[in-house]
Fold:
Amino acid sequence: MTRFWYTKRAKFGNQRGFTLIELMIVVAIIGILAAIAVPLYANMQARARVAKAQADIRGMASAVTAWAAHMGTLPSVLGLLTAIATSPQNITAGPFMAAIPTPPSTVWGTAYNYAINAALGTFTISAAGDGATVSAP
Structure:
């Protein structure tokens, strides 16, 4: 029985571990990889927020166009897109959107900007943030 413990200890005693220099090199390599990956990740997040804003604005622009085709005029506010609308010919339709989307982050503000040019019969939906401005007529 003592022979078992002696041979076990002898095997552990012959094993070597990593030196401090080797561990420091591994930590340095991990630090360099992290320094490269973090800015790339932040850039991807900003691009994703811009893409979300573009998709939201395209959806709202389509809903405004459908509402205008049904009603004959542009909606005064985006909130009208979420309700049932009755046209001058007494035809009901809608809602044209389930809910008005919110901007991707607080940097983009609390709501999308909606502006109407009644003289020309046009509209603009826009938002700005992350160094980019997104709009759609």
In short: The radius of gyration is 31 Å.
